[in-house]
Amino acid sequence: MEIPPKSPDESEKSPQSKELLSSITASTLCTSSRSGSVWTDAPRSKWEIYHKPVIVVSVGAAVFLFGIVIISLSCIETKNEKVYKMCGPAFLSLGLMLLVCGLVWIPIIRKKQKQRQKSQFLQSLKSFFFNR
């Protein structure tokens, strides 16, 4: 039976490899961050903060209005009445769901922004008093 060669100990590794390992870990940590605001202090515009919920609200309102149009077509047109009566409520409920989700999302983002401002203020106070 062959014995596999021993792996080098930590003490036998070159200082260059240790340095390389720590720099790779640090760069991976920075790139895997979910929030860019942690690493950059640049203020974001209102559109950058609220663009996702605004898009969800807009799409929800459009789908909701489309559902209203389809239901009104079921009252006017008798040719495809069953199809209109089946699709209308589906579009109404989908549009209403998106509309409500977007409208609820906006206050959640506002609350997060206030908490972030408070935490940044407390961090600056902490650094002011403890770094003296």
Automatic annotation (TrEMBL):
Q: Which GO terms describe its molecular function?
A: phosphatidylinositol bisphosphate binding; transmembrane transporter binding
* Keyword line: Membrane, Transmembrane, Transmembrane helix
Q: Write out the annotated subcellular location.
A: Membrane
**Any transmembrane segments, and where?**
54-76, 88-109
Bias class Basic and acidic residues marks the residues at 7-16
Cellular component terms (Gene Ontology): plasma membrane
Q: Which InterPro entries match?
A: PIRT
Signal sequence, start to end = none
This chain belongs to the protein called PIRT protein
Organism annotation: Ramphastos sulfuratus
Q: Which gene encodes it?
A: Pirt
